[in-house]
Amino acid sequence: MVVCICNAIRENQVRDAARAGSFEPKCAYRRLGCQVKCGQCIPFAREIIASEHATA
């Protein structure tokens, strides 16, 4: 599933970034070589990151 249309970031990429230590969407996006643009994806990215850290 696509999380960020602006950067074409997929859910599995956000999950991988969270597993690698990112706790915020901005950090995850930086890890992926991108930056937040319009910001509409932030709430969904936060949910994904939180779920990854909850199961870790």
UniProtKB/TrEMBL annotation:
- In the record, what terms sit under GO molecular function? 2 iron, 2 sulfur cluster binding; metal ion binding
One family name in Pfam for this protein: Fer2_BFD
Keyword Transport in the entry? The reply is yes
Q: Which residues form the BFD-like [2Fe-2S]-binding domain?
A: 2-50
Q: Which InterPro entries match?
A: BFD-associated_ferredoxin (IPR052371), BFD-like_2Fe2S-bd_dom (IPR007419), BFD-like_2Fe2S-bd_dom_sf (IPR041854)
Alphabetical keyword list: 2Fe-2S, Electron transport, Iron, Iron-sulfur, Metal-binding, Transport
The domain of life for this entry's organism is: Bacteria
Task: Provide the family line.
Answer: Belongs to the Bfd family.
Q: Specify the protein name.
A: Bacterioferritin-associated ferredoxin
